[in-house]
Amino acid sequence: MQSNQVTDLQYLLNSNPSNFPSHFGLANNHMVTNSIYQFQIPQQVQEFNPKSTSFSSNSTSDEAEEQISIINERKQRRMISNRESARRSRMRKQKHLDELWSQVVWLRNENHQLIDKLNHVSESHDRVVQENAQLKEETLELRQMISGMQI
């Protein structure tokens, strides 16, 4: 789009081109096509780069240094804040882990107590089943004795 001397730029305008100053290139070099005006931009304007322009005052350099200083302070504060946040996160994680281990110990103790209780009930059940079997045997013997006496 860039030529050696001048580049064309099309721009949509609603007003009369004669109202613009002559350095816009409209006074002599405009073409009207459905309200679109074609500007010719000199190469010096095309090569304008606001970053490359230098100002001779020290105030801009001081302002730049101040902005850099502010940015560095913000970075430093953010870094400290992030470290503190990470430390709090590690502490929460450690607390949670400690609570989980405490729960594991409690559940293991509870499990051992329940197993002991189950073993005790199971032993009692076995004794009752054995006693029941003995009583049935005695009942059978007594019935046989009674039936033997009646005969």
UniProtKB/TrEMBL annotation:
Which compartment or compartments is the protein found in?
Nucleus
Statement: the UniProt record of this protein carries the keyword Mitochondrion: no
Using the record, list the residue span of the signal peptide; answer none if the entry has no such feature: none
Q: Which PROSITE patterns match?
A: BZIP, BZIP_BASIC
Acyltransferase among keywords:
no
GO CC annotations?
Answer: nucleus
**CDD domains this protein is in?**
bZIP_plant_GBF1
Chief place where the protein resides:
nucleus
Enumerate the spans annotated as BZIP domain. 72-135
**Mind telling me which Pfam families this protein's record contains?**
bZIP_1
Specify the superkingdom.
Eukaryota
Keywords tagged on the record:
DNA-binding, Nucleus, Transcription, Transcription regulation
GO MF annotation: an example = DNA binding
What protein am I looking at?
A: BZIP domain-containing protein
To which species is this protein native? Erythranthe guttata (Yellow monkey flower)
